[in-house]
Design a protein that fits this description.
Number of helices: 21
Shape: globular
Helix content: 40-55%
Distance between the termini: 53 Å
Number of strands: 18
Radius of gyration: 32 Å
Largest sheet: 6 strands, mixed
Strand order of the largest sheet: 5-6-7-3-8-9
Length: 664
Amino acid sequence: MISLKGLTKSFGDRTLLDDVSLNVSAGERLALVGRNGVGKSTLLNIIAGLSTADSGEVVLRADTVIGYLHQEVDPLSRRTVLEEAMEGAETASALSRRIEKLQSAISATGDQREIQEWTRQLGHLQHHFEMLGGYRTEAEAGRILMGLGFRADQLNRPVASFSGGWLMRIALARILLGNPDLLLLDEPSNHLDLQSLLWFEELLREFAGAVIFISHDRAFMNRVATRVSELAHGRLEHFAGNYDAFLSEREKRLALLRATRANQERQIAETRRFIERFRAKATKARQVQSRVKQLEKIDVAEMPQHDANLSFRFAEAERCGKEVLAIRGVAKSYGIHKVYEALNLTLHRGDKVAFVGENGAGKSTLLKLMAGVTEADSGSIALGDRVTRAYFAQHQVEALNPSRTGLEELAYHAPGESEGRLRDLLGVFLFRGDDVHRTIEVMSGGEKTRIALACLLARPANLLLLDEPTNHLDIPARDVLEAALARYDGTFCLITHDRHLISAVANRIFEVGEGMVRSHAMDYDAWLYRKASETRNGLNLRGETERSATPSPSEELKRGRSQRQALGGLRSDFYGQTRELKKGIENAEAELETILRRKKGIENELTKPEVYSNGERVAGLKSEMVSLDEKADLLTLKWEELSVELEDLESQFRRQEEDLRKRA
């Protein structure tokens, strides 16, 4: 499919590619890995013909169609989403436009000779269009777009009305519709939600052509890649298998290389000792000369250079109260679109929360509400005692001042800090020496993200709100962020498409969708297992229905009786499972009501002059109020957990009941 032979590429005195060779066949899916800035995107540009190598060649079959997804997408198209995607089928799209023009011309003319000639041309074009599968293009474009997360009502909206992540999906749909032989993908998973990502992974696994992709998403590479090539210090090293296999094989190669190097160094040391010991002895002259030649022939194994690693901890902040943030009755709309109507949610100290849900479900809106950068239409959002929050948003990279240097930008966000302290923090993010004086406008996306993260860390906070902090970070940088979050003793809420990061750090899942937030007191893997179990149960019931043949009347009676028995058993199990849950919820609500009444009574007492003048009595009432608040917090948490569990059981029961009724 494609062959690279001896490619070299330099920028000034910096060599990105040094005698790089590669062969990729149809059906292979090659993951190109390496630190940010080593030249991965440059290599894709050379393969796509958008850049030239200093030497070497790219060999492609003459009729090879290349589809290239860049990191950045032009948002200026005037077409609708569907029209833009259909442009991927270039020949069919061009024919469609010619057909539309001819149809308009025929409708506008009264000249019979023109009508006859144009009708003949129209028939020829329509036949050609049909042979190309043009009449299926719109349906296929719709299928791809909806697989990537678009709703049917969004397909006729203008492209310009969508943000960057959605523009990336439109560009991807356009590329896929062109049915390329070779797909070049530069970080395709950055802007896909979990559902779209799973769909796209399956599409790539079934893709008949070759795929070369850059990604920092380990889960994506593990599911998609059949080979991994690591670019480091200008050289490309190849490994069979997915990303986990690459890590294992690379460690084995390094271990072998270390052992070889150690043996060589031991041999060299022994040979030198022999030479030094017997150099002056004439009787050993021949042996000495032999050892000297032997020493010259040793080709010392070259150990790979080690890049400096990021290492940091979040600055320690003052310990806050048990309740970190409380959302009560919050409503939020954008125009006629209601995101939330009556949202209730509580964060507690030590919660490590990951938001999951489709793009557009309201995850970023919820985080903005928590951060105070967006106001609720109604309801309240209250921070707990001694809570200090820090917010990292996707747009914060764009909010950096491009004319400032990295050092100036950090100083702006941390006024009063010494230059030495600022340089130390930038050094953690690999900005050393003169690098701190580079302007932000010349930095790569990953470098800008690191600057934005450094600004976030400049001041301590015990509540972190992070919206896609790993976008454009390479895997080593993600590893360090993961380690820092794992050690962080505060509370954080995280939106990310990095499934590995969620699995590593989250102890609570907020499932966002349909104007609701479902809280799950479990880690990501447990949540995925629950979701998979629910889906599997539903699929099993549907599968049995599909296999059923048309029954005879006697079979129908038996089946009806069997279905009634199954429904009765299902209801019995459901009532048994939920009885204690409902009782627990009722008890919690009753206790909360009692606490609220008592708190109201205390508040009334504290307004009375005769009570307020009694210091001992006031202290006792306030102490009781604190105790009541703590009990209310625990009861509220218990009520939320029981309610979520009940809601999950009810949802599962309704699905199973519906499936059983369909079989009846």
